[in-house]
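Action item from last meeting closed. Structure (71 res):
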């Protein structure tokens, strides 16, 4: 009877550990997905900034060219 109780406690503990590990694994997967989404947003922001800088440089260079050309 004692061994049966011990065996059941071990089985219960194994099930609890397994459930906890599944929860940890899901949390890690969720964190990885959130990090990937954040990195994609950062990458897009950098790309948008690069495009805006290039557009402004082009605009300034065009303005300078026109002013110099007209002088």
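Sequence:
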């Amino acid at each position: 009877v004692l061994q049966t109780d011990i065996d059941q406690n071990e089985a219960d503990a194994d099930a609890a550990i397994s459930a906890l590990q599944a929860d940890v694994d899901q949390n890690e997967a969720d964190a990885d997905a959130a990090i990937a989404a954040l990195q994609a947003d950062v990458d897009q922001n950098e790309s948008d900034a690069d495009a805006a800088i290039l557009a402004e440089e082009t605009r300034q260079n065009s303005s300078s060219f026109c002013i110099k050309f007209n002088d």
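Note appended to the action item: The chain has a mean pLDDT of 93.
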